[in-house]
Amino acid sequence: MLKTIQASQIAGSLGAEIRGVSLADELPDDVIAEIRQALLKYQVIFFRDQKLTPEQQIAFGKRFGDLDTHEFVLGMPDHPEIIRVVREADETTLNFGGAWHADVTHQESPAMGSILYAVDVPPYGGDTLFSNQYLAYETLSEGMKRMLDGMTAIHTARGPFAPEGRSKNNWKNMQVVTSEKAYEEMEHPVIRTHPETGRKMLFVNKTFTVRFKDMTEQESAPLLDYLFRHASHERFTCRFRWTPGAVAFWDNRAVLHYALNDYTGYRREMYRVAIAGDRPF
Ligand code: SIN
Prior knowledge:
Elements: E1 6-9, E2 16-19, H1 29-42, E3 44-47, H2 54-62, E4 67-68, E5 83-87, E6 113-120, E7 128-132, H3 133-138, H4 142-149, E8 152-155, H5 158-161, E9 186-189, E10 191-193, E11 200-202, E12 209-212, H6 217-231, E13 237-240, E14 247-251, E15 255-259, E16 268-275
Parallel strand pairs: 2-3
Antiparallel strand pairs: 1-2, 3-14, 4-16, 5-16, 6-14, 6-16, 7-13, 7-15, 8-9, 8-12, 10-11
This protein binds succinic acid.
């Protein structure tokens, strides 16, 4: 039960706006515990009208675990834990995060969660969509669940971050460092169990998952394409309209997200910290 904070659900499948808390403050442990409880219940939680310095955003993130630094996107010079997700008004190319994904699933231990703070928002557009991966799993047929339960998928960062990857022509105002390391492959179960709730989730995404273990990409493509489409079906989603100072905190184990690219001509800048996660099982 939430005692100090109030949560209002924003959609049927996931997402809630939280009121009654200033994230810049040094919050008592019981309030942090309520925020964690809300995150587990709603998978993504939103806070409006926050005023956070980089230090305060880092301090808030650290209340939930160690922070993860991105392997291919440099953080701010004085705050390497924060990456600036920025698209300038004159950019017309693909935005960062503009495909359904969970963050950094190419890592052995992908982030547990990410906290995104809106610094500069366009007058319209630039919303972020989220999709509930518990529901994506639970709505599969029993036969499909049985088959996927024993399967392993291969994730790599080569699509966005290899030298010839998407960052070559996109994200010009972000500090992306491409590398051959992006070709390294990581194995994760296709169906993952949430370490805190014990519930099962679908755990593949279009940005990082390239094939099933012991199968070619061509062989994997039909089923992966089906799962990517299923995972982002609109009935599992919510949509967040950003306002200056808004914060989204998502459970990166349980949701996919997608940053919409519909604000060309306007600037959008967000600060993101990620909380270290554990190895999927
Ligand atoms: C991201 O994928 O982390 C960025 C999300 C956003 O900019 O809305």
